[in-house]
Amino acid sequence: LATSLSVTHQFSAPPSQVYALLTDRAFLDRRLAETGGEDPSVVSLESTADGATVVTRQSIPASALPSMVAR
After folding, report:
1. In angstroms, how far is CA 17 from the centroid of its own chain?
2. Which of 9, 14, 32, 38 could form a disulfide with 59 if both were Cys (CB 3.0 to 4.6 A apart)?
């Protein structure tokens, strides 16, 4: 079941440094692994002059979901 997610953050670093970090596959792999999901992966990372698109995937065991969702 795919779900779209939009998040807004504010950073104290210059935009170029934040962009470089958020488009660094090694950083994204580490960050995703820290979330605790099963089989985390960066499915795709596309960076162009217009911006970046990052697609990630991870599994969450049914035991970690609220009962109304885990049915």
Report:
1. 18
2. 38
Nearest-angstrom CA–CA distance, 4 and 47:
19
pTM equals 0.70
Residue with tokens 């960050």: 31
Specify the amino acid at residue 42. Answer: V
| DSSP states along 6-56 | ------SS-HHHHHHHHT-HHHHHHHHHHT--EEEEEEEEEEETTEEEEEE
Helices and strands (H and E) in the chain: how many: 3, 2
In this structure, the strands spanning 51-59 and 38-48 are antiparallel
Q: What sign does the dihedral 33-36-42-45 (CA atoms) show?
A: negative
